[in-house]
Write a sequence for this structure.
């Protein structure tokens, strides 16, 4: 049995990727398993489910048929409660089993070298470059509990939400923390054999109406299975134009324009602002050693992510 990991950080589209993987009859992704709030992690902490330490537990989740059967029953109950049809997958039909989790979770459990020591795991690295949009999305999640919006017709328009009032200083602090976490995640991936990694960027995954399906065709091929059609019935929870989302938009835009994140103001995120980014001469540079694009995960409990989904 092959194994895989969706290696990501919060508000970067990982729910979509994991859900799409589970639509394939030969694939299974359990979702998050390292968070302290996850059912199987609670079992591990209380009864050493899967082994004496977190690494043994994670290995067990990725390889155990008994865990698969347990997760299958749990998922069936949860889907019936939501009015969804359970997925009837059988162990012998599976080609790859995996999980999705945040880079920060691996660091919390002292598992930064886990992927380097397990070359058999295929890695789907997913990140979101626009730290500003991610940070606002995290704040919206914390206040509303809305993780994603699904449309029966598969449309991708943003859902309507009341505007958010955001403390500009707290926003900058959150964005800086996200940057540091993302740098760490990308650093860990950069040290792996490129042949076992496929890199996805949120902005490309959802660039057009056809991009999600195109992305998943590549993911299926990477995982060694024939591509299948997916139901990508997800919509953006927030408008890309943050002036329609943030009630104190001008105050926030002014603070961002005077930070090292000023370039994000001209990236389509704040389309109504009249405040331009600071010049490169006066904008503080990113921290030394920064790798790749902006972004990282926020250390919060992702609401609605506690199900196991074979």
């Amino acid at each position: 049995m092959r194994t895989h990991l969706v290696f990501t950080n919060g508000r970067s589209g990982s729910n979509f990727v994991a859900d799409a993987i589970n639509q394939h009859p030969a694939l299974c992704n359990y979702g998050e398993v390292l968070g302290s709030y996850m059912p199987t992690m609670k079992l591990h902490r209380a009864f050493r489910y899967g082994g004496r330490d977190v690494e043994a537990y994670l290995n067990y989740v990725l390889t155990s048929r008994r865990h698969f059967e347990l997760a299958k029953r749990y998922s069936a109950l949860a889907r019936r409660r939501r009015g969804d049809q359970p997925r009837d997958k059988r162990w012998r039909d599976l080609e790859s089993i995996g999980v999705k989790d945040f880079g920060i979770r691996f660091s919390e459990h002292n598992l930064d070298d886990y992927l380097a020591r397990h070359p058999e795991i295929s890695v789907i690295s997913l990140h979101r470059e626009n730290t500003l949009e991610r940070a606002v999305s995290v704040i919206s999640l914390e206040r509303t509990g809305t993780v994603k919006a699904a449309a029966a017709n598969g449309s991708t328009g943003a859902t309507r939400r009341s505007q958010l009032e955001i403390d500009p200083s707290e926003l900058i602090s959150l964005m800086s923390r996200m940057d540091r976490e993302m740098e760490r995640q990308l650093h860990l991936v950069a040290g792996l054999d490129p042949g076992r990694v496929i890199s996805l960027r949120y902005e490309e995954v959802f660039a057009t109406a056809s991009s999600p399906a195109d992305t998943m065709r590549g993911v299926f091929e990477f995982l060694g299975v024939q591509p299948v059609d997916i139901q990508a019935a997800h919509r953006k929870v927030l408008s890309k134009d943050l002036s329609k989302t943030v009630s104190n938009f001008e105050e926030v835009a002014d603070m961002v324009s005077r930070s090292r994140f000023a370039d994000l103001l001209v990236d389509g995120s704040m389309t109504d602002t009249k405040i331009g980014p600071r010049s490169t001469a006066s904008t503080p540079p990113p921290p030394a050693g920064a790798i790749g694009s902006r972004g990282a995960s926020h250390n919060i409990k992702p609401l609605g992510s506690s199900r196991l989904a074979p």
